[in-house]
Amino acid sequence: MPVLDEARDVAEALDALAPLRRAGAEVIVVDGGSRDATREIAAPRADRVLVAPRGRAVQMNVGATVASGETLLFLHADCRLPADAATVIGSARARGARWGRFDVSLAGRSPMLPVIASMMNVRSRLTGIATGDQAMFVSREVFASLGGFPALPLMEDVAMSAALLAAAGRPACRRSRVIASGRRWDEHGAWRTIATMWALRFAYWRGADARHLVVRYYGRRADPPVTLQIFAKPPRPGRVKTRLAKSIGDDAAAALYVELLVRTLATARDAERAGVVDDVELWVAPGDDAGVLRELATTHGFTLREQAGEDLGSRMRTALRDALSRGSRAIVIGTDVPGYDVAYLAAAAAALQRHDVVVGPAEDGGYVLIGLARDVDVFSGVSWSTERVMRETRAILQASHASWQELATLWDVDTHADLERWQSASRGDAPARVAR
């Protein structure tokens, strides 16, 4: 369930899902940066409450990355499922349906709402195109094969339906009805809203950029892009994971570095596909032979860049300023943190919608992630590679009067104890993340 500033209604929406939770369904709420108490109200009523950049497509994609079920249902906060929803979905899936949707009824004042709902249902049956108000459901396998909802700020349901039609055939159109809010028709007038929505659909069909259409629909510009910058070294024995190499050897340490690097790149790729970030850059240490990293960058479709600067701080600032100069917000991460996942990167990107800086603290006193929405010098005068890095960074941020947000504390793999902890977490014996 994607939400944004739904404190007034989210309790009712989630309480209505309580029977499904008791029957074993997992309820995941993904907040798009609410400024009210939405997350606090949702927390006791959902299995997970995550934060992601604003936008239904991105929010739903992030939720799907942590979902454990074999069938994914995407429900807007102003929609209520029919009482037999679980049975209906289970029956459709048992009959081989790979995706589907419900009919819809619209609740509101306008006498036109029953007619509009009927038109939506008929049109959907004829075209195979579903809207978000119709509570789309899809098998996890199909959803993953398509890379999730196209990362559009508008028309994500239309684009997803078209992709599903091509990949999985026509939807199972169930006659059980979702009750959706008709407030947009009540507030703006039924005929005016119908005309606006058809005009937007026609413009999208003609090839208009959804980022431009969002201005006409929501009255605001699309958010600036986010660039994810991964700092890495070529995985040569004796040059990477040197502390760990003292206990497991240079070759084993280099092999471990490769494993962590590949894992980080896969997470970055998934974040890009989900729409959490718009671009991914792999930044190689200056003067290093980038052979393996160049191959990995090419494989994942990432841009390879070379770091520049005298120390880690100056190299990070140079990279971040490069992205900022192109009108993009930017996030820098390393390669040796098991706790990186799409949800963590989404929380960082969401923080940059409201704050100048986002930081992910590390247990060892440093940090595992830093991002900027504007050029703030948080790097000068920091004692790099010491346990004072995060403490000094906080002091700099306070002195700069910049706004910032800290994420959950993570840990990286530097010592043999860290390696054992990671192996234990991989077996499910221990968490890879520490909540703050």
Low-confidence spans = none
Overall pLDDT confidence: 90
Strand order, sheet with most strands: 11-10-9-12-14-13-15
Secondary-structure content class: alpha/beta
Query: DSSP strand (E) fraction?
Result: 15-25%
Radius of gyration: 23 Å
* CATH topological fold name of the largest domain: Spore Coat Polysaccharide Biosynthesis Protein SpsA, Chain A
Number of DSSP strand runs: 15
Range of helix content: 40-55%
> What is the second-level CATH architecture of the largest domain?
Alpha-Beta Complex
CATH class of the largest domain: Alpha Beta
Give a short account of the largest sheet.
7 strands, mixed
In whole angstroms, the N-to-C terminal distance is: 24 Å
Number of domains: 2
Shape: elongated
How would you explain this protein's 3D organization?
There is one protein chain. With 436 residues, the chain is of the alpha/beta class. It has two domains: 2-218, Spore Coat Polysaccharide Biosynthesis Protein SpsA, Chain A (Alpha-Beta Complex); 226-426, Spore Coat Polysaccharide Biosynthesis Protein SpsA, Chain A (Alpha-Beta Complex). It has a seven-stranded mixed β-sheet, sandwiched between helices. Helices cover 44% and strands 17% of the residues. Strand 10, helix 14 (291-300) and strand 11 (303-306) form a beta-alpha-beta unit. The chain has 18 helices and 15 strands.
